[in-house]
Amino acid sequence: MRALTRTLVSAVTAVGITAGSLAGASAALAAPASTTVPAVTSEAVIPLAVVNLGLSTTQAKYAQCWLRANWGYTGTIDGQLGTNSWKAFQRNLKAHWGYTGAIDGIVGSGTIQALQRLLKASWGYTGTIDGVAGSGTQAAFKRFANACSGWC
After folding, report:
1. Prediction pTM value
2. Tens digit of pLDDT per residue, the chain (152 long)?
3. Which is it for the CA torsion 62, 49, 105, 15, positive or negative?
């Protein structure tokens, strides 16, 4: 997922740099088509601020209420699962579902694998523990979030 995000961010950044460079040039000064665009490195990639994994805003609010009640989430109940929401989730996943990574709020494959273990145990996930948040993972995550409505 990070590789796809990096690729997408790199492509969008390169297009933006090219468009911005040409936008200010007059027709006579525009760079020729063969001009090389500066390379964008992985260091320029910033993790996505919000990763709802298919949850609606309402469902994400339910999950945040559960995280606030049980896992030290202190942020706004806004339906946007950002870094602080995922840090709280990672605390749960580390305590109960085999997450071994840093509590950093980054939704990588380790976070997804631990989430899949949680979802497989009680929320109808039947897929493999592969760290990919596909349709089965997202459907089970929605069931989990809907069950969290009682915490709001």
Report:
1. 0.68
2. 444 344 333 433 333 433 344 344 444 434 444 445 444 444 444 555 899 999 999 999 999 999 999 999 999 999 999 999 999 999 999 999 999 999 999 999 999 999 999 999 999 999 999 999 999 999 999 999 999 999 99
3. positive
